[in-house]
Amino acid sequence: METAKLIIAIVQLIVCIGLVVVVIFQPGKVDGMSGALVGSSSESFFSKNKGKTWEAALEKITTVGAIAFMVLSVALYILG
User: How far apart are CA 20 and CA 26, in angstroms?
Assistant: First the structure.
């Protein structure tokens, strides 16, 4: 049982570090409410969709990492 807890804890630590790195690489959403109220006409269609695949991949990785982190946390709680 102790071996399982150790393995899960190590995997959780790796997922945690990976999740932090992925979140740091994500671009910030600077506009916020001011962008919604004022509007931004300086962006063209191509600049809005530039790099969308990279951002979408980072969002998916973040979602999967967060779910894995929660599942591992619950597993450690149950084993503990």
Answer: 10
